[in-house]
Amino acid sequence: MEDNHRVEVRVYVQKVKHLEYEHRNNLKGIEIDGSNFNRDEYTNSDTRVHTHKDNKRGLKEELRERDLNNAEEIRNVKQQHEKILMSMREGFMGNLGELKERCERKLGSLEGDLELRRKVDIHEIEERKNLHINDLMR
Predict the structure, then answer these.
(1) Which letter does DSSP use for residue 27 in this model?
(2) Cα dihedral 23/28/32/37 (nearest 10)
(3) Which residues of 52-78 are buried (b: 16+ CB within 10 A; e: fewer)?
């Protein structure tokens, strides 16, 4: 029984040694897998970071180009508005000149008419005065 017990203890000790050996081997495999995974993850992370930086640079460049295009477009629109404003000013100045001429002509014709009317009124008054004088003398 004692021999049997010693044999069983040896068998269990060998099993424990075998399990410890397998456990160490498994730990080494897991450590290797973990380090490989970490290395791959760092590589992927670096790749993603570089990709995002490149994308960011590209987007910034595109934004800068859009800003320049928009500034150029705004400048063009301002120039067009200035041209339109100048043409409108010239048109209004021309209309103003025509209106002044027309008003001056009307004013001249009205002054002539009023002068004629004044002369006619003075002539009528003189005739009435002369008639009245003649009536008084008779």
Answers:
(1) H
(2) 30
(3) eeeeeeeeeeeeeeeeeeeeeeeeeee
41-98 residue pLDDT tens: 999 999 999 999 999 999 999 999 999 999 999 999 999 999 999 999 999 999 999 9
pLDDT tens digit string along 10-25?
Answer: 999 999 999 999 999 9
Interatomic CA distance for residues 30 and 42, integer angstroms:
18
Domain boundaries, the chain: 1-109
Nearest-5° angle of CA 57, CA 60, CA 61? 85
DSSP 12-68: HHHHHHHHHHHHHHHHHHHHHHHHHHHHHHHHHHHHHHHHHHHHHHHHHHHHHHHHH
